[in-house]
Amino acid sequence: MVRFDSNILLKQEHNQKNQSDFNALFTIQYLHEAEAKVILVSDWKTNTSELHLEQVADFLSGIFQIQVVPLQGISCNKLSKVKDLQKENIYLIESLYNIKDEVANCLEFSRVLSTGVDIFVNDSFSSSHKVLASTVGVTRFCYACLAGFHFEVKLRLVKNLAETNKKPYVAIIGGGNLAEKAASFRFLASRCHGFVFVGMMSFQIMHASRVQVPIDFVDHKALPEALDIVRLARDNNVKILYPKDFWCRNKYNRKQLHVFPSHEILDGWVPIDLGPITLDEIGSLLSDCKKITWIGPVKFADGSEETNGGSKLAKILDQLSKGNCETTVVGTTACNLVTQETSSLSSINMVENASAVWEFLKGRKLPGVMAVDRAYPFEIKWNNVYSDPTQSLVVDIGSGNGLFLFEMARKRKDLNFLGLEMNEKVHTRS
């Protein structure tokens, strides 16, 4: 069973340059070519006629060039028999979007969902921060629970946000709801050298920094968290950059636009986008960076095509990523802008779902990751294991107490040896 990300596989247009699309497709194609009986499950919305089970099965058949057969019954906790499924086909279970037992991680529903399944493959990283029957519950009934290629790549990118091997490291932070995300800044402040605020959250930071801003954009309930972030940045020598000017729209004449300094916005004008001075300052700060993470949209009241700061920021990152700057973009809006504005997607890392990343930055363990942890391929630093990791590797599957392997290693210094043994008692005793 493969839990796939419907937001990726059900796109109307699949750009082969998009590595996320490729990895999501490759997981399923790989399993099918390995002659596994493959059952797909996801939670696409069913409020439009184009997304009924049969239409989705036909759509996926066209993508995979393999017949995808719909399976009915899961909404009634009675799935069609799966023992007689043919390997030549791929099978699709109806959408879990409106099923309460899915969100409740119901044990009985999980058992029915995993009927006949030996191996569970989670390839929906966008759901990894949720506890669902299709991502967590089913793992109790499967022999092995693994990460798909798409899931594995996204998890690696998210973990890489914690690495500080490249400096200076700057986080560009957009969006709003500062109070909900405040816990993430302690994590970021311990790793980054600068914060660049580009969304609604910037008004809270400016207010905490005693910069006069329109009172309508200040969330007074978030003031304690904003003050803590400013204090935390100061204590960790993290530079804070907030907008110095804004494009604003006249409340009474929507066609009228004007640029105001952030501390001199006149009554009757509403900030809608980053101003030119701010974008120049951001470009200057980022020019020397070796690592940049952009999370959250550049979004204020209502944007304008004439003042599209998000697109301009995407172009800045595109140029930097072509050099020696590791760039990661998080969130659907930011990823879409980068896709539209960049010449080569291969130079920028993208994680479409921001919610899972914010949960990771808060220091929380992602349930979807923990559910496959026992079978997940842990990262091993081979340079610490072998004196010369470039030598040919000999793998002994079922190495027992390892006596044979040790004797071989003594005789052949020109080879590296790896023993695999699933019997924990033998492993502990040896």
Automatic annotation (TrEMBL):
It comes from Pisum sativum (Garden pea). GO terms for biological process: gluconeogenesis; glycolytic process. It holds the Pfam family PGK. GO terms for molecular function: ADP binding; ATP binding; phosphoglycerate kinase activity; tRNA (guanine(46)-N7)-methyltransferase activity. Its EC number is 2.7.2.3. GO terms for cellular component: cytosol. Its cofactor is Mg(2+). InterPro entries: Phosphoglycerate_kinase, Phosphoglycerate_kinase_N, Phosphoglycerate_kinase_sf, SAM-dependent_MTases_sf, tRNA_(Gua-N-7)_MeTrfase_Trmb. Keywords: ATP-binding, Kinase, Magnesium, Methyltransferase, Nucleotide-binding, S-adenosyl-L-methionine, Transferase, tRNA processing. It catalyses: (2R)-3-phosphoglycerate + ATP = (2R)-3-phospho-glyceroyl phosphate + ADP; guanosine(46) in tRNA + S-adenosyl-L-methionine = N(7)-methylguanosine(46) in tRNA + S-adenosyl-L-homocysteine. Monomer. Belongs to the phosphoglycerate kinase family. This is Phosphoglycerate kinase.
